[in-house]
Write a structure and sequence with these properties.
The structure holds 2 protein chains of 2 kinds. Chain A is an alpha/beta fold. Chain A has a domain at about 10-255: Amidase signature (AS) enzymes. Helices cover about 40% and strands about 15% of the residues of chain A. Chain A contains 15 helices and 13 strands. Chain A has helices at about 10-20, 25-40, 50-65, 105-115, 155-165, 180-185, 220-230, 275-290, 305-320, 340-355, 355-370, 375-400, 420-425, 430-435, 470-480, and strands at about 45, 75-80, 120-125, 145, 145-150, 170-175, 190-195, 215-220, 260-265, 295-300, 400-405, 440-450, 455-460. In chain A, the strands form 2 sheets. Chain A has an 11-stranded mixed sheet, with helices on both faces. A two-stranded antiparallel sheet of chain A has the order 4-5. In chain A, α8 (about 275-290) links the parallel β9 and β10. In chain A, α2 packs antiparallel against α3 (about 50-65). Chain B is mainly alpha-helical. Chain B has a two-stranded antiparallel sheet with strand order 1-2. Chain B has helices spanning about 5-15, 25-40, 75-80, and strands spanning about 85, 90. The longest helix of chain B has 18 residues, at about 25-40. Chain B has a domain at about 5-45. The chains are: A alpha/beta, B mainly alpha. The interface between A and B is large, with 72 and 52 residues.
Chain lengths: ~475, ~100
């Protein structure tokens, strides 16, 4: 993946708007890249070739006629296949929704369309976004562009791989406990989870509703910011969208912060980090000192308890959200044997339609919410959730952003992690971001040499809720310093 | 809390989850859930007395939208995804059993 410096998306879309580059030629060049490598990588569940070409031609015609086109004119975007679109199918990489066709577009799709972007296809994911490797897809694993024997991370593995393999300019994913940031780290691109409530979830198939957030993947922080600028805002169709002012940031992220205070939690310098990850973190700290940052030693003692807290809250919410898949209104319906009743229809349809990890989480969530266990698990997890949030609040009194690894390890071999619990541990640095509802971004912080493979290492910055400007400006500084 | 999950517990959880479980799956599901719950047991060590549960990261104030009718989604679009339809209706197996199970 040694690509020359890319033209920024601001620049590229500017050329499309001025007519010096056609949207159609951009789509064709990505389709050529996809034809070459997609059969090996499997980033996509479905390509929207005809629709993308038609849309590109329409944009070019608009430009030619002298009418206004949006700021994302000609930007080629891949969409995680748990975000609904009228075009094509929305499967969540589940047998349950293998043939589901949405009757509406998600708010983020409407916004992309309004801004002139072109959707190239729907990307693979862990079924219903549950996983950290995209191995839980009912339609086959996505391979890492840096080493196809390894995972792309997850759950938004297809979106991360599509950006890293240069199948598109940028992509959308969803992040419930790290599902944007971890695959971005493993594939060597930028993955940004905004503050909870910044971007409408209308049309995102719900997993953990108090944790889910849509966000962009891109090759640079600036590109991710440009996309973000066009996705944010209150939405009448999502009551949890925040009514907080947003000023476009893409033109501002290049402005350096003066003497930013970078908090580095002791807990993030864990012995559990792979050596190359630990080295990348120390290099970034040194680079930050060089650009004038103040490095602040902080403590986040509840880091390790995050996984347990998350694996109560997220499955509890999932068990409720996924109750809608009953084989009646949409989705897979089992064939009943004579004498089997409506309840068997639910139970058989769900057992046949959901894969093992989804079933595991539904049962886990059902258990922690069930009578006799609710207080010990769910209520207690919510109490710890408050403690985690307060711990971040205190930390942010001492620093502007928090730096650490995104994942304790680089991309692991496909099939190499068989125990669900070990897989869950991959998210140790990302789940608390969602638990507290704050923004986080992963950027490339170097590479680990493993045999002949050069595996990207992701570093993460976190900031207080709604402090996206600080977060993205700091990330731009690190991006330049770590390159 | 610390008591081990039994096969009967797994069957009960599966029933509450509306997931039909084959007999052959019960012991492996029990092993997996037990391993996860064994890890989650560390929550019990965190002092939480007097801490107000936090269900949602944002302080959300109820927002009332104007009560204005909007055009509905076309029925045919919605029925297109239904596994079984009869006319303009979703078809389901008999709901009212002979014993009044519903």
């Amino acid at each position: 993946m040694k690509h020359a410096k890319h033209a920024s998306l601001v620049e590229v879309c500017g050329k499309v708007r001025s007519g010096s580059v056609t949207a159609r030629s951009r789509v064709e060049s990505y389709l050529a890249a996809i034809a070459k490598r997609e059969p090996e990588l499997h980033a996509f569940n479905e390509l929207h070739i005809d629709a993308a070409r038609a849309r590109a031609d329409a944009i070019d015609a608009t430009v030619k006629s002298g009418r206004e086109v949006g700021a994302l004119a000609g930007a080629v975007i891949a969409i995680k296949d748990n975000i609904v679109m009228r075009e094509g199918r929305t499967t969540c990489s589940s047998k349950m929704l293998a043939n589901y066709r949405s009757p509406f577009d998600a708010t983020v799709i409407e916004k992309l369309n309004a801004a002139g972007a072109i959707v190239i296809g729907k990307t693979n994911l862990d079924e219903f976004a549950m996983g950290s490797s995209t191995e839980n897809s009912a339609f086959g694993v996505t391979r890492n562009p840096h080493d196809p024997a390894r995972v792309a991370g997850g759950s938004s593995g297809g979106s991360a791989a599509a950006v890293a393999a240069e199948f598109c300019d940028a992509a959308l994913g969803s992040d419930t406990g790290g599902s944007i940031r971890q695959p971005a780290a493993l594939c060597g691109c930028v993955g940004f989870k905004p503050t909870y409530g910044r971007i409408s979830r209308y049309g995102l198939v719900a997993f953990g509703s108090s944790l889910d957030q849509i966000g962009p993947f891109a090759r640079t922080v600036e590109d991710a910011t440009l996309l973000y600028d066009h996705l944010v805002g209150r939405d009448a169709n999502d009551a949890t969208t925040a009514d907080v002012a947003h000023e476009p940031l893409a033109s501002r992220v290049g402005r350096a912060l003066t003497k930013p205070r970078i908090g580095v939690p002791r807990e993030y310098r864990s012995a559990g980090n792979a050596p190359a990850v630990a080295e990348a973190l120390e290099r970034a700290i040194a680079a930050a000192k060089a650009f004038g940052a103040e490095i602040v030693d902080i403590e986040l003692p509840l880091t390790d308890i995050g996984i347990s807290t998350y694996y109560v809250i997220a499955p509890a919410e999932a068990s409720s959200n996924l109750a809608r898949f009953d084989g009646i209104r949409y989705g897979h319906r089992a064939t009943l044997a004579p004498g089997e009743d409506l309840e068997m229809l639910y139970s058989k349809s769900r057992a046949e339609g959901f894969g093992p990890e989804v079933q595991r989480r539904i049962m886990l969530g059902t258990y922690v919410l069930s009578s006799g266990y609710y207080d010990a698990y769910y209520k207690r997890a919510l109490q710890i959730r408050r403690l985690i949030k307060e711990e971040f609040d205190r930390a942010f009194e001492k620093c502007d952003v928090i730096l650490g690894p995104t994942s304790p390890i680089p991309a692991f071999p496909i099939g190499g992690m068989t125990d669900p619990l070990s897989m869950y541990m991959c998210d140790v640095y990302t789940v608390n971001t969602n638990i507290a509802g704050i923004p986080g971004i992963s950027f490339n912080g170097g590479f680990a040499q493993e045999g002949s493979a050069r595996l990207p290492i992701g570093l993460q910055l976190q900031a207080p809720a709604f402090a996206e400007e600080t977060l993205l400006r700091a990330a731009t500084m690190f991006e330049a310093a770590c390159a | 809390m610390a008591e081990a999950l039994t096969d009967a517990d797994i069957r009960k959880i599966a029933k509450l989850s509306r997931l039909s479980l084959q007999d052959a799956q019960v012991s492996s599901v029990r092993a997996q859930l037990s391993s996860i719950l064994g890890h989650i047991a560390q929550l019990q060590a965190v002092p939480v007395e007097g801490v107000e549960p936090l269900a949602h990261p944002l302080r959300i104030v109820n927002r009332l939208d104007a009560d204005e009718p909007k055009p509905p989604m076309p029925v045919e679009d919605l029925l297109r995804n239904a596994p079984a339809v009869e006319g303009r209706f979703l078809a389901v197996p008999k709901v009212l059993g002979d014993g009044g199970g519903a």
